[in-house]
Design brief:
55 residues, mainly alpha
Length: 55
Amino acid sequence: MRQSLDEGAQVVGLVKASTFLVLELRIEAVRTALALEADQIIKLTLAGLLHPSAG
């Protein structure tokens, strides 16, 4: 009985770890997308300041 409880705990721990990893990867993907978007906004703003016809 003890062994099956330990195996069950390992499975639950693995599922929790996998879920946490997926959430971390999603957060990192969102951060990357936001950083790229902010970079584009800054570039367009600077282009508009340097070349008013571009903005």
